[in-house]
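> @MW can you paste both from yesterday?
MW: sure, first one:
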Amino acid sequence: MDSLRLAKVLGQRIRELRDAQGVTADEVAASARHFGLPWQRSTVATLETGKRGLAAEELLMLPLVLGRAGVSGVRLIDLLSNPIALTDRLSVQPKGFQQLLEGVGGQSLSLGYWTGPVTAEDVDWSSVLRRLREMSAQLPGDLQGRLVRAAEGDMRGEAEQKAARRLGYSALQVSVAAHLRWGRSLTSERDDRVASRGGKGSVSAARGHVTRELDKELIEELQPFPRGEK
């Protein structure tokens, strides 16, 4: 699942919960004003469409606002139901937000995964090397080292970066998996498969079909990697 921005996720959940319990946007706005927030119906509308974000104070007060308006039993964690992109480089899984709210630091797997350009310093090389050691009997000579160098060079490719976001792995892990599977970069494999379909339908449709196909094959190679590590 692709990560959404926090404002978009919160907005969607507010609308879903409000509609499910028959609460109007006017009632939510009135509840917010009761707690000292200068909300109007239009404020709620822009929140629900993701066009307006929440200040830290508003976010913390959101369960109170919704509860007083008639949306019962809502906890802040209940509003965070999708992987959320906090920045261009970090997405957080829903279960990781509890740890964030508790102030848990470090690189917990449940907290998130990198989604932006990855540098050598960002990479957890141990997970990559563990995977390669598992295959050492099948990789003659210096193939391991050459594979890692090739994967590191390819991990900044468009397909590698997008697959990392979709699958929840680092771009390096995706790149290594591609080289193990096809002996070349994911971007090259994707482009060749799309080209081989020739005039069968639109290019975008062909690329979508190929992407789904490649994702399934990549998952088989990615299984031994710790999911979500940088």
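MW: second:
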Amino acid sequence: MYRHGLLRAKRKKAYLRAIAAEHSDLAPRAARNLGSLLEMQEDYEGAAEAYRQAIASGHAEAAPYAAWNLGFLLEKQEDYEGAAEAYRQAIASGHAEAAPNAAKDLGLLLEKQEDYDGAAEAWRQAMASEQTEVLVEAEAGLRRVEGKD
């Protein structure tokens, strides 16, 4: 257990150095990875801040994933409005993996909130995915909400 804690501390330090270096490619990736590490350590405020830093970078890979991760984090914290906004940021990126996954998660969130029209729209966006798992979940979600008002 001690060894894992030491490895996490070293990773955190490395991510912080990469972020401080402000390298256009490495810093956003490090911010996203730092967010994931802090989330695992249950430092949710720190994780959200790191994800937001990666999103603000506009990095083609790190920003969409960070937005998707932030949405999931905020949803766990029951900040549903913030989660939906983060998911929508990931969707708007058009990223091949993060966007459809965020659409799937937005569909689930809106379905739980009984916003069936919004959920159906999110499911339709997710159905544009080429990822089999996302496509299957999106089709099932759309079937669940169609016709509900």
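> thanks! The chain has two domains: 1-82, 96-149.
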